């Protein structure tokens, strides 16, 4: 290290060094993200105590729990060792950013993180019915899930397993779920197809002209063991909004534009009514513009159409609420044709089989009553039995009771 240089080679997720010089102190401070967001030094016991007291304040106020942003970033290596270069760059979506070229061995995911999460879990356990949901970063997210969830850590966590995918099929979803495991000491995964950090799945997966494809994938995730994060606008089938550079406010997008157009396309206001200014979101000009494709998919417009994405999503989630096995049951995958995701959920005496055709082609599956069971109705998906076969239409689904 040269005199006057940053302490090491650590990089900020949002570009440049993760060290910023503070002239009044004559020191560098660490920021894993924006320089306006200095990292807390969790190695300091007083910092941990102060954070826990803030959490206690909100628990006393009655919050249901906390969503922990990038919860592997709290601690760094005490000796400030350099990060080595990545053997294989992480995340093809982020190759515009030098951050992907480092192995983040020393700036994040330190063992001390788990000790602090245990302290936070112990605090939340003092209050009935509270939950901790953690966000795990992209690299090695499945291994982190095992480490960070469990009886004395987070109840559930989500990673970037599906959020960053630009193609998604049944085998990918099954492989991801199997890698996460479902042992008695493992926490619950939180399945997410969309969130505020990634382009909306309708556009990311190329499904603008196939709303049924996006819907059946989302519905499949809600039926898997775990929880589901339903991101605002997913129930409307919103595509990613096209935001011109002059309207971008995401500092990440502005830093790396045009190689990366930022995250604002997934952060635009919710369209409530196409006939109102700003689609009914606000009377004043909102933070981000309302785009015309979103206006046409507004809630008011979709509520009048029985087959709209909104109404189908509502119908299915209301139906699912009455099926305990889909909410609480264990899960066992079925060996079914390619591009069909199949599994059973079992809770108490209720067994439910679930088959989802994630392809654009009709699929024929030999009928096995012991596996598929008797059809359940009311969920809004069509499938038929013909000549001893289950016929799943493109982007169709089957639900059967097998007990």
From TrEMBL:
GO terms for biological process: oligosaccharide catabolic process. It holds the Pfam family Alpha-amylase. GO terms for molecular function: alpha-amylase activity. It comes from the Bacteria. Belongs to the glycosyl hydrolase 13 family. Residues 2-267 form the Glycosyl hydrolase family 13 catalytic domain. This is Glycosyl hydrolase family 13 catalytic domain-containing protein.
């Amino acid at each position: 290290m040269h005199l006057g240089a940053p302490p090491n080679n650590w990089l900020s997720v949002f570009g440049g060094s993760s060290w910023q010089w503070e002239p009044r102190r004559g020191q560098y401070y660490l920021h894993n993200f924006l320089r306006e967001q200095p990292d807390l030094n969790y190695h300091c016991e007083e910092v941990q105590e102060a954070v826990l007291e803030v959490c206690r304040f909100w628990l006393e106020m009655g919050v249901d729990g906390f969503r922990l942003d990038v919860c592997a970033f709290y601690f760094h290596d005490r000796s400030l060792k350099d990060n080595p270069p990545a053997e294989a760059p992480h995340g093809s979506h982020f190759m515009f950013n030098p951050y992907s070229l480092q192995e983040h061995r020393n700036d994040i995911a330190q063992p001390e993180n788990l000790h602090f999460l245990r302290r936070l879990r112990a605090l939340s356990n003092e209050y009935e019915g509270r939950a901790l949901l953690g966000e795990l970063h992209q690299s090695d997210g499945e291994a982190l899930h095992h480490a960070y969830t469990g009886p004395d850590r987070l109840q559930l966590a989500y990673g970037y397993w599906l959020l960053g995918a630009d193609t998604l099929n049944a085998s990918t979803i099954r492989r991801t779920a199997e890698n996460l495991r479902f042992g008695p000491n493992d926490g619950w995964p939180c399945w997410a197809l969309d969130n505020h950090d990634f382009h909306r799945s309708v556009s990311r997966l190329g499904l603008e002209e196939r709303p049924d494809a996006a819907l059946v994938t989302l519905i499949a995730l809600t039926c898997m063991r775990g929880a589901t994060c339903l991101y605002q606008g997913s129930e409307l089938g919103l595509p990613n909004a096209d935001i011109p550079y002059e309207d971008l406010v995401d500092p990440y997008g502005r830093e790396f534009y045009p190689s990366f157009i930022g995250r604002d396309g997934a952060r635009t206001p919710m369209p409530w009514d196409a006939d109102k200014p700003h689609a009914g979101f606000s009377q004043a000009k909102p933070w981000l513009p309302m785009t015309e494709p979103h206006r046409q998919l507004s809630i008011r417009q979709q509520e009048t159409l029985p087959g709209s994405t909104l109404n189908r999503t509502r119908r299915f989630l209301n139906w699912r609420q009455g099926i305990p096995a889909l909410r609480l049951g264990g899960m066992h995958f079925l060996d079914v044709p390619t591009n069909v995701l199949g599994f059973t959920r079992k809770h108490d005496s209720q067994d439910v089989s679930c088959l989802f055709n994630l392809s654009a082609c009709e699929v024929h599956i030999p009928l096995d009553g012991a596996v598929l069971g008797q059809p359940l109705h009311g969920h809004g998906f069509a499938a038929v039995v013909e000549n001893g076969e289950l016929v799943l239409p493109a982007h169709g689904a089957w639900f059967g009771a097998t007990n």
